[in-house]
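sry for the spam today, last one i promise. C-alpha cells for design, 609 residues
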C-alpha cells in the first residue's frame, strides 16, 4: 500500500525474525496478585451468579458429606443389635435410607444447578472479554499494529480468553466444593472421634507445603508457555499469509528453523509447567495414603476395644479418602488457575494499551468546499526519528494533488496524517479552515473515499463489498459504479454474480480485486479522494480503461494521488516531489520536466531500457 507498508511486509523472512514476532508478549508479565485483582474487578458484574454458584456448590458438598455419617449410624445399629441378640429395627433402617436418598437427590440438584449457572456465566464472561478486546482494537493507534504480530493479538483473543473461561468453568465450583468438603469432613471426623480427626488433619500441613513448593516453581513456566504460544501463532500467521513469497525466495528453510525454535521453546516451557503440575496429585495421593494407613490401624485398635463401632471406622476411612480427594482437586484447580492468570495478564495488557487521544472537540465543517491546508507538519513514527520535516501545503477545492517520490520518502505518511490515522508531532492540518484535531476521527474519515494498493475485501457477497462504504446503497448505484470501474462484465460472469461470496480462496485475480475496490470508492461518493497507487495491480490496457472513469470521479473533488507510475498523473494540478520527508520540488508535469531536476530523473528513469 505504501512505503510504510512496504517496510512492514516486504519480506516474510525478515518479519518472522524481527519485531513482528515479539509484540506485547515479549514484555515482562505483571505479578499474579495484580492479575488476580484485575480479574476479580472484571468479574464484579457477574458477582451475583458467582455467589449463587459458590452457595449451591457448598450446599451440594455439605449434603453429600452427611452420607457416610448416616451410613455409619445404620451399620452401628446393625452391629449393636446383632451383638446384643436384638432384632433389627427395619423401620429405622428404611427411614434412614430414604432420608439418605433424599439428601443425595438434593445434592445432585444443587450440583446440576450450579453447573448450569457457572457454564452460562463463563460463556458470558468470555463473550464480554472478546467483545472488549475487539472494541479495544478500534481505539488503539495503528502504531501498535506496526510493532506487534497479528498472530500474537489473535492468540490473546482466542487461546488466552479460552484459558480464562475454562479455569472459571472448572475451578470456581471445584474449589468451593473442595474447601467445603475439607471443612465438613473435618467437623464430621471430630464428631466421630477427635483423636483420629487430629491424625487426619496432621497430613494437611505437609500437603499444603507440597502445593506451595510446586506452585512457586511452576508459575513462571505457565507465563512463558502463554508467551511462546502467542509468538508461535504469530509466526504461523506470517508463514500462512506469505506462502508465495516464501516459495519464490526459497525462504522455507529459515522460516522452518524459526518455527522449530518457537516450537521448541513452547515444548520446553509447556513440558516443565505440566511436569510440575503433574507432580501435585501423585505426591498428594502418597501423603494421603500414609494418613489412610495410620487411621486404619488406630481405628481398628479403638474398634477392638469397643470405643467406636464398625460403622464409625468405615465412616472415618471414607472421610479420610474424601479429605485427600479435595486436596488433589485443589492442586489440579490451582494449576488451571495459574495458567488462567498467566493468560489473563496478557488479556489485560492488551486492554491497558494506550488508546488514541480522546476527542473532546466536536467541531465540523459547516459548508464543505474541499480546501486542505498542511501547516508546518512534523511527524515521526518513532519520537526520535522524524520523517516529515516542516511540510506545508495549500490545496484549493477540487484540485488534484499528486504525491511522488522514492520508496520511504513519506508519501503515504502524509495521507495517514491527513486521515488522522496518526497524530502529527507538531504543526496542524486543516480542512476548510477547521483543524482535524477539533473534529471527530469518524467525521474526518467520512470526507474521504480511499482506493489503496492493498486490495482488502472481506468475506461476504460482492454486493456487500462494493456497498461497504455507503449504508443502504441501492443496486443501481452498485452496478453503475461497477460499470464505471470496468468490472461489471466480470462480476456478471461469476457464479451468482453480485451475490457471489468472496473469501481468501476465491479465484479472483489481484487486478479484479483492485477494480472492485475502485468501484467501492465510487459507491461511497465521498467529497474527497485518496488514491494510493490505485492502478498498480491492473494491466496497462485496464489502466487506460479505468483512467477516464477515475478522471470523471475526481471532477469537483479534492484528490490526493500517490503514484509510482508517473505517466498517470500528468494532468495533476500540483505534483509534490518528496524525498526524505521534505518537498524538493512542486509544480505541474511540464514545469517539473523543464526544471530537469529530481522529478525529471524519476520520470525519465521509468522509460529507460
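last one done:
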Amino acid at each position: 500500500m505504501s512505503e510504510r507498508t512496504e517496510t512492514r511486509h516486504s519480506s516474510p523472512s525478515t518479519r518472522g525474525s524481527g519485531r513482528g514476532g515479539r509484540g506485547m508478549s515479549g514484555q515482562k508479565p505483571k505479578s499474579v496478585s495484580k492479575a488476580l485483582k484485575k480479574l476479580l474487578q472484571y468479574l464484579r458484574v457477574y458477582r451475583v451468579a458467582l455467589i449463587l454458584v459458590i452457595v449451591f456448590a457448598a450446599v451440594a458438598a455439605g449434603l453429600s458429606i452427611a452420607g457416610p455419617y448416616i451410613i455409619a449410624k445404620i451399620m452401628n445399629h446393625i452391629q449393636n443389635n446383632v451383638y446384643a441378640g436384638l432384632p433389627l429395627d427395619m423401620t429405622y433402617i428404611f427411614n434412614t435410607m430414604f432420608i439418605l436418598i433424599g439428601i443425595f437427590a438434593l445434592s445432585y440438584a444443587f450440583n446440576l444447578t450450579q453447573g448450569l449457572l457457572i457454564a452460562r456465566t463463563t460463556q458470558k464472561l468470555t463473550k464480554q472479554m472478546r467483545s472488549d478486546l475487539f472494541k479495544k482494537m478500534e481505539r488503539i493507534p495503528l502504531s501498535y499494529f506496526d510493532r506487534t504480530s497479528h498472530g500474537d493479538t489473535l492468540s490473546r483473543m482466542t487461546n488466552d480468553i479460552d484459558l480464562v473461561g475454562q479455569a472459571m468453568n472448572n475451578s470456581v465450583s471445584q474449589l468451593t466444593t473442595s474447601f467445603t468438603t475439607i471443612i465438613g469432613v473435618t467437623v464430621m471426623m471430630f464428631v466421630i472421634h477427635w483423636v483420629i480427626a487430629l491424625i487426619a488433619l496432621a497430613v494437611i500441613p505437609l500437603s499444603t507445603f507440597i502445593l506451595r513448593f510446586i506452585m512457586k516453581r511452576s508459575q513462571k513456566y505457565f507465563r512463558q508457555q502463554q508467551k511462546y504460544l502467542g509468538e508461535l501463532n504469530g509466526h504461523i500467521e506470517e508463514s500462512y499469509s506469505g506462502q508465495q513469497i516464501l516459495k519464490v525466495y526459497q525462504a522455507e528453510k529459515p522460516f522452518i528453523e524459526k518455527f522449530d525454535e518457537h516450537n521448541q521453546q513452547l515444548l520446553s516451557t509447556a513440558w516443565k509447567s505440566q511436569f510440575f503440575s503433574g507432580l501435585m496429585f501423585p505426591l498428594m495421593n502418597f501423603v494421603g495414603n500414609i494418613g489412610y494407613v495410620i487411621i486404619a490401624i488406630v481405628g481398628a485398635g479403638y474398634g477392638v476395644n469397643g470405643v467406636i463401632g464398625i460403622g464409625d471406622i468405615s465412616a472415618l476411612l471414607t472421610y479420610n479418602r474424601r479429605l485427600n480427594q479435595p486436596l488433589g482437586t485443589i492442586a489440579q484447580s490451582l494449576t488451571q488457575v495459574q495458567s488462567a492468570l498467566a493468560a489473563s495478564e496478557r488479556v489485560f495488557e492488551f486492554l491497558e494499551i494506550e488508546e488514541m487521544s480522546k476527542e473532546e472537540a466536536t467541531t465540523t465543517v459547516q459548508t464543505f468546499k474541499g480546501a486542505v491546508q498542511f501547516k508546518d507538519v512534523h511527524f515521526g513514527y518513532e519520537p526520535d526519528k522524524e520523517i516529515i520535516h516542516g511540510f506545508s501545503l495549500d490545496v484549493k477545492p477540487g484540485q488534484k494533488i499528486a504525491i511522488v517520490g522514492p520508496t520511504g520518502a513519506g508519501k503515504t505518511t502524509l495521507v495517514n496524517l491527513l486521515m488522522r490515522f496518526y497524530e502529527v508531532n507538531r504543526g496542524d492540518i486543516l480542512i476548510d479552515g477547521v483543524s482535524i484535531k477539533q473534529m471527530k476521527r469518524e467525521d474526518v474519515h467520512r470526507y474521504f473515499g480511499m482506493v489503496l494498493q492493498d486490495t482488502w475485501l472481506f468475506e461476504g457477497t460482492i454486493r456487500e463489498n462494493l456497498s461497504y462504504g455507503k449504508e443502504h446503497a441501492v443496486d443501481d448505484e452498485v452496478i453503475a459504479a461497477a460499470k464505471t470501474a470496468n468490472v461489471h462484465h466480470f462480476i456478471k460472469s461469476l457464479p451468482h454474480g453480485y451475490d457471489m461470496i468472496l473469501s481468501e480462496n476465491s479465484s479472483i485475480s489481484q487486478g479484479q480485486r483492485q477494480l472492485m475496490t475502485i468501484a467501492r470508492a465510487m459507491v461511497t461518493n465521498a467529497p474527497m479522494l485518496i488514491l494510493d497507487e490505485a492502478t498498480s495491480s491492473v494491466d496497462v490496457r485496464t489502466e487506460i480503461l479505468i483512467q477516464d472513469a477515475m478522471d470523471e470521479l475526481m471532477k469537483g473533488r479534492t484528490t490526493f494521488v500517490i503514484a509510482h507510475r508517473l505517466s498517470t498523473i500528468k494532468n495533476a494540478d500540483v505534483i509534490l516531489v518528496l524525498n526524505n520527508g521534505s518537498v524538493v520540488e512542486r509544480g505541474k508535469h511540464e514545469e517539473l520536466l523543464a526544471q530537469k531536476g529530481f522529478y525529471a530523473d524519476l520520470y525519465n528513469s521509468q522509460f529507460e531500457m
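The CA atoms of residues 3 and 407 lie 5 Å apart. ok im logging off now
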